[in-house]
């Protein structure tokens, strides 16, 4: 007998149908406990979801306000000024509130900005408090959320600096500028001389009648031979260009320019001016001194020139205001004194006769300026050794190794730049300037 055919089992209930049955059972629950439990569970779920949304909006708003306060603070600190007045603080707050008004739902409840100025820095700090409206917070009776933030910035004080240029224009600055120029100068002069003296012509009574067109100065010009005095002019022009390019305050740098040679000749080519173009315009007037009619060479008088600067340059100030600038003397020379006057380093050189002393520069000459905190930068256009010249061998060679060190002893630490024959005086001048400005920032 065969087995009966198997009967089909119950069909599976689809998921949707099961959910429908559960909801019907939930709806028929007479005690209401299921409904109450579900409702109670739903409230914190909705509150948490709403809080998450509102907290995200609050964080986004805070990020925008933080950016706004940072921008307002940096705008003030980057101004070309060493002070922060009430108008600047008002402008800072206005800028911040203008940007904050662009953030939806935000209300600024307080804003405070405070400047700080010390002997070496200037700064500003700002804090704000604000509220941002909530979207779902009302469910929990929270209509706003608090925001607070701050920003601060500071920088070094920008110093005002006055520069006094003291430029040696004695006949020795008529030395040919490079080794090639020296060789060419010797080639075109009858006695093989590397110096281009500048001479007058005279009448029978000894009165000046004009320039001597046959002096070695004109010989150099006719043969396109560059002299140190010409390079010095170029260096001054380059200095002005760099100063103008690097000023961070209006009229931050001012300059005055002098040349000197003998005990009676210190010439102010340009008085102290904030218009540095005037210095550049005066640079072509830097020229080597004329040789004396009697061919006397005592035309490099450091002591009288430095003494003159000491009477002209006031004590150095703080640099915080234009009325109290830091003061620098930039001194360009070959370092060998050749004078008719008395000197403090009498034993260091040679008293050739009663009217002429030749010797190295005396560092003590600079003490009075240093006592007034005037900083001294020196470019040493190295004295050319001429070992085939008897005068050089007798009166310069014995102390030639002291010329540079004695100039360096006069210079403020780090502001001494020697330039050898053929070296770049312009590069030395620019290095001196940048180093001088940096030294002020570091010191203060």
TrEMBL record:
Gene3D superfamilies cross-referenced by the UniProt entry: von Willebrand factor, type A domain
Putative Flp pilus-assembly TadG-like N-terminal domain residues: 32-75
Endpoints of the signal sequence: none
Regions that span the bilayer: 34-53
Domain of life the protein comes from: Bacteria
Keyword Transmembrane part of the UniProt annotation: yes
Keywords: Membrane, Transmembrane, Transmembrane helix
Pfam families reported for this sequence: Tad
InterPro entries: Tad_N, vWFA_dom_sf
Protein name: Flp pilus assembly protein TadG
Highest classification ranks of the organism: Bacteria, Pseudomonadati, Pseudomonadota, Alphaproteobacteria, Hyphomicrobiales
């Amino acid at each position: 007998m065969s087995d009966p055919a198997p009967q089909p089992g119950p069909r599976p209930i689809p998921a949707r149908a099961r959910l429908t049955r559960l909801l019907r059972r939930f709806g028929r629950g007479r005690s209401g406990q299921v409904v109450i439990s579900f409702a109670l569970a739903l409230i914190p779920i909705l509150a948490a979801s709403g809080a998450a949304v509102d907290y995200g909006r609050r964080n986004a708003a805070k990020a925008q306000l933080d950016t706004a306060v940072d921008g307002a603070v940096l705008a003030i600190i980057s101004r070309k000024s060493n002070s922060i007045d009430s108008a600047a603080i008002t402008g800072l707050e206005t800028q911040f509130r203008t940007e904050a008004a662009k953030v939806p739902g935000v209300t600024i409840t307080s804003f405070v900005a405070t400047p700080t100025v010390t002997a070496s820095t200037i700064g500003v700090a700002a804090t704000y408090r604000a509220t941002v409206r909530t979207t779902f917070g009302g469910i929990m009776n929270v209509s706003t959320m608090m925001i607070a933030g701050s920003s601060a910035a500071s920088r070094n004080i920008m110093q005002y600096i006055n520069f006094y240029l003291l430029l040696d224009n004695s006949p020795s600055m008529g030395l040919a500028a490079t080794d090639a120029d020296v060789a060419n100068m010797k080639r075109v002069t009858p006695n093989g001389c590397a110096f281009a003296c500048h001479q007058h012509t005279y009448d029978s009574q000894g009165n000046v009648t004009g320039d001597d067109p046959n002096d070695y100065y004109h010989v150099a010009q006719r043969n396109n031979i560059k002299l140190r005095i010409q390079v010095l002019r170029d260096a001054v022009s380059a200095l002005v260009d760099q100063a103008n390019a690097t000023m961070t305050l209006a009229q931050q740098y001012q300059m005055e320019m002098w040349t000197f040679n003998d005990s009676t000749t210190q010439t102010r080519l340009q008085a102290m001016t904030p218009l540095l173009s005037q210095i550049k315009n005066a640079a072509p007037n830097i020229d080597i001194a004329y040789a004396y009619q009697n061919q006397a060479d005592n035309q490099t008088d450091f002591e009288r020139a430095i003494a003159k600067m000491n009477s002209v340059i006031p004590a150095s100030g703080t640099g915080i205001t234009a009325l109290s600038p830091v003061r620098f003397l930039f001194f360009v020379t070959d370092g060998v004194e050749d004078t008719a006057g008395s000197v403090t380093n009498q034993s260091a050189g040679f008293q050739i006769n009663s009217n002429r002393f030749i010797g190295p520069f005396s560092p003590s000459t600079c003490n009075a300026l240093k006592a007034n905190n005037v900083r001294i930068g020196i470019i040493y256009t190295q004295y050319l050794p001429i070992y085939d010249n008897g005068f050089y061998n007798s009166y310069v060679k014995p102390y030639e190794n002291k010329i540079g060190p004695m100039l360096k002893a006069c210079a403020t630490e780090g502001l001494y730049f020697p330039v050898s024959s053929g070296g770049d005086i312009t590069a030395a001048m620019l290095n001196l300037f940048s180093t001088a400005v940096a030294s002020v920032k570091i010191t203060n």
